[in-house]
Structure formats: C-alpha cells, structure tokens
Amino acid sequence: xxxxDILQIGHPVxxxxxxxVELANIQTPEVQGWIDDLIDTMRDANGAGIAANQVGIxxxxxxxxxxxxxxxxxxxxxxxxxxxxxxxxxxxxETFVSNEGCLSVPQMRGNVDRHVEIAVSYYDRxxxxxxxxxxxxxxxTWQHEYDHLDGILFPHRVTDKQSFCSWQIFQEFQQAxxxxxxxxxxxxxxx
Length: 191
Description:
Blueprint: H1 12-15, H2 29-44, E1 49-51, E2 61-66, E3 78-90, E4 95-102, E5 105-115, E6 117-123, E7 129-135, H3 138-149, H4 154-157, E8 165-166, H5 167-189
C-alpha cells in the first residue's frame, strides 16, 4: 500500500484509453496492490474518486468513496466502491449541470453536463459482477471517473467556458449556491 503521485492533465497516460483488466488477474497481488494504492492515494488527496490511469496504471479500474469530505461537503455519501472494467449506459436523456474539479487538474473547476440516470456494470475487487442503477448527483461521480478510463478529463467536457474558475473562487463565490443545486437533486433522486 502506497500513496502514488497523481499525473497531471496533458500526461500521455491520461489521454489514452485504458486497457481492460484480465478477470483472471483480479485476485493477483499486483491488481490488489493497485486497488490498495488507489484507495490510499484518493483518501490522502481528499478525492471523491480516482482512476488507475491517474496514477500511471493504464487499466480500467477506479475507486469511489464519499464520506465527510472537506472538499465536497455537499456530495451525498457513497461507500467505498472498487470498480473494475465498468460499462455505463444512460437511462434517459435528462442531464444536470455538475461543477467539477479533478485531482489531475489541480485548483480548477468548471461546469459539465452529466446524465441524471445511469446503469452501471462492473466487477469488484473480489471479481464479483455487479449491475446497479445510479441516479441523481452521485451519477456524476461515476461518469467523471469512467471518463478517465477513456482518456477524457472534465475540461474536455466543459459546456460553458465562462464557468472555469479556481478552487478558491468556487468556494468564495459559487459553492453555497451550488450546494443548494445539489440539495435539490438529492431531494429529487435520493442520492
């Protein structure tokens, strides 16, 4: 278990599509070590999730966890979830505005349109297959991490270039109203 360096936007590993994890390799010490490193790195950086290619591991693997995170006090809770070889399908055309940041794009924020209802299919760290429906604000966390696996970072999806701002400006001028926006989504969708 180790805290790894997080690659920054522009790094070639972040720009490439990650390879599938061989299902027979999930239980190997190598893959289990990657998972532990991702968890440690995400928690150390106060992230809500992190994809393997963000730390130089070019495979389709990410972890998500939202607890009492000081960076995201408005986010609904998500228990620690290990996601291997995910697939996402949009269940409707309905979207919402998600103001996002990224550990690989330090100190920047911007507005991205995200689907409000998704179906996810993935394997966990034990190799068990899962299929779930994710609705509401939590769906953006899944979509953000999934995008990483295809070499897409949030600035590539920003819909309003005027929404780009620093973390400090977001906290000072936008976070309170954005938290109300998220509260409305959570009330409607339960997450």
